[in-house]
């Protein structure tokens, strides 16, 4: 019987860092292929888009199968290691909290952070004479929509981390590994000042040997694309 090769196609400065971290936590054998972003578009290069079903990072291949979408990849990898303990069991006390944060990370928080980035980049790119108008519109969207939702999530995270040390409860779970990109992104935007529990959580995650091994393989100062 031939064993299928599991490959993480890792894009620099991207959400695929969290899959790298997960693979290091699992200790599951895998092959790593790293790709740089296109220097002009800053998007994934054409060779990456040819592998990923929807052209985005992360993507894994396992034999003939290619799977994109961070949370789907995480569940797929956890299915390969059913005893990994990274998903609180149905009926266990941490289950609901785990489900909430695993889904809120991608379903609520990530779109807001992405919207903020897109608005910032759009404002920077419009012709200078339109910039005051662009700033007015993005400012209104930021104050009226982005900030209230983002701060509600950060506030809830802070309150939950005051009760239990991990997003999924008493132990590390996929929720922590998934949300790290969001929390690191919030820190890069200077938004964690009022949230000491979140700062402490981030420091604890970064101190984990598997996180450090992933950082070494990634060979970048951060998983977040530097803000110019
Ligand atoms: N919801 C998707 C989002 C993927 C996504 O937007 N990835 C970004 C990297 S952080 C990307 O692929 N950017 C490069 C591109 O769009 O070409 C996931 O979690 O996998």
Describe this structure in words.
The protein is α+β, with helices and mostly antiparallel strands. The protein folds into two domains: 6-87 and 214-218, 3-Layer(aba) Sandwich (Glutaredoxin); 95-208, Up-down Bundle (Glutathione S-transferase Yfyf (Class Pi), Chain A, domain 2). The protein has eight helices and four strands. It has helices spanning 17-26, 46-49, 70-80, 95-125, 131-163, 174-188, 196-207, 209-218; strands at 6-11, 31-35, 59-62, 65-68. It has a four-stranded mixed sheet, covered by helices on one side. α1 links the parallel β1 and β2 (31-35). α1 (17-26) packs antiparallel against α6 and α4 (95-125) runs parallel beside α6 (174-188). The longest helix has 33 residues, at 131-163. It starts with 5 loop residues before the first strand and ends in a 10-residue tail after the last helix. The model has no long low-confidence stretch (mean pLDDT 95). The structure holds glutathione. The site of glutathione has 13 residues, from loops.
